[in-house]
Amino acid sequence: MKRGLQKKCEDRQFLPPLGDTPREDTAAVMKFYKLPKAFSKLVLDEAESVGRIRPADFEGRLDLRRKFIFTCDPETARDYDDALSLATDRRGNRVLGVHIADVSHYVRPGSALDREACRRSTSVYFCDRVVPMLPETLSNGVCSLMPGEDRLAFSVFITFDRNGEVTARSFAKSVIRSKARFTYEQVMTVIGGGRLDARFANCAKEAARTIRAISALAQQLRARRFAAGALDLDVPEAEVLLDGEGEMSGIVTRPYDESHQMVEECMVAANEAVAKELWTHGVKILARLHEPPEQEKMLMLRAELRGLGVKVGDLSNPKVFAQFMKTVKSHPLYPTIATMVLRSMKRAVYDATSIGHFGLAKRYYAHFTSPIRRYPDLTLHRQLAAYLSNPASARVGSATLARWAAHASEREEIATEAERGLLEIKKFRLLEAQLQSRQVIDYDAVIAKCMPFGCFVDIPELDVSGLVHVSLLSSRYVRFNESDQTLSAPGGGRWRIGDRLRVHVARVDFRQRRIDFAPVRRG
């Protein structure tokens, strides 16, 4: 990450500005982070010219159009870039098929489309719009695996034995025709033993059988990952709701249930299979690298967890760490604990020289499954295609890979900061509106840190943090006890990390991006 961006992330003076109105907030954030707006006419014309399927495109491809293949996405999804299937081989082993839109067929190296996709490197997802990596002609059209439509794909086949061990893997350019598009909610209904509605009458039995079998495999793979030391940091996804004026009207928490886990495990398996195939055969790639946390960070985390009264072992041991995360899942302070753990982790990046993913407990890992929205995935598609025809042609120069890795990591960081920046603005607008209307709303809070001047609290409902000043905790002198990181006042008042409070907003400072809360007085 370039120093200029890092400075913006660390220095609170360099924060995305508000728009003149809530409707203009996104445009202000996009301008601040210099995100691209519309595609050029050259790029749009090229997308239009290549964005159609021709009969000749099917030549030399594995024809899977008769197979039961389906997609599973959020209700609001507009493009579907991955699909799933499951078969059984002659030995009774399960063969998982992960079918990814063959974006590389349409976006050729050196083309105007390719240069623009590389420049953007990633799609940016705001709460009110998407800044796509590719024009909609491709991302929502010919590269979207819509049901009932012939689509070009890159398929990964992974064979698992009864224990969930990989016994074989293969890859093929293919043509598919998705039989159904399911939402997570519909898939969850099937996993739970329910039935699909009348819209799927023509494939309901096969769909239910396939979904439940893939879900069972996914849970087996998930258990194996955690046994190997993967971290269980899954938390419900918060979705911001906006009204017609661009004001935040609320937050809806989307559950992370077995339907989401089914898709994630299949994508992880495909990413691992491609990375392992190429890396172990001497083909260097843009790996998705997640390094183990630093020892100093682990010691700090251990001290913080002890402050919560949580027993911990040797967190430098990945399996001990993984078991710890599993045991605290039911802890009432789990959201706070998960946040602490995430803050202690290194950021995952793209790397051309090292490989491995600590959080997923994978020795080989790269991004392959989202070429519509991530340029590293597109480069991996190209390398895999080259490898399948002539392994020597798949090799890319170290300097080129290093340049791609640095650029992709930087663009990803910019996208993440922009997305967070807009969410923060919307939340601050909501809380400021409550103050201005004198609408007092109480929130459940958890003390995350105690300092001599007050305590910082997390509001899980809003996913925001703020300060409760010592002057608002007690009318008496409040003392900070450094030995146990607590605040105390004469007469029995005592506050420590992990304590719960009911608070309401006392002050909102947009310039410093600071929120002050006040405790709710009882009685």
Question: What key attributes describe this structure?
Answer:
21 strands; 14 helices; 36% helix; OB fold (Dihydrolipoamide Acetyltransferase, E2P); 523 residues; disordered N terminus; 2 domains; five-stranded antiparallel β-sheet; single chain; five-stranded mixed β-sheet; globular; alpha+beta
Structure description:
- A hairpin with a 5-residue loop joins strand 7 (150-160) and strand 8.
- This protein has a 5-stranded mixed sheet. A 5-stranded antiparallel sheet has the order 16-15-14-20-21. A 3-stranded antiparallel sheet has the order 17-18-19, with no helix packed on it.
- The longest helix has 39 residues, at 398-436.
- It has 14 helices and 21 strands.
- The protein has helices at 3-10, 25-32, 41-50, 112-120, 136-142, 184-191, 204-227, 258-279, 295-307, 318-327, 334-344, 375-389, 398-436, 470-473, and strands spanning 62-63, 70-73, 82-88, 94-101, 124-125, 130-131, 150-160, 166-177, 180-183, 237-242, 248-254, 287-289, 349-351, 443-451, 454-459, 464-469, 479-481, 486-489, 493-496, 500-509, 514-519.
- By secondary structure, the chain is of the alpha+beta class.
- The chain has 2 domains: 3-291 and 346-430, no CATH class; 440-519, Nucleic acid-binding proteins (OB fold (Dihydrolipoamide Acetyltransferase, E2P)), CATH 2.40.50.
- The N and C termini lie far apart (51 Å).
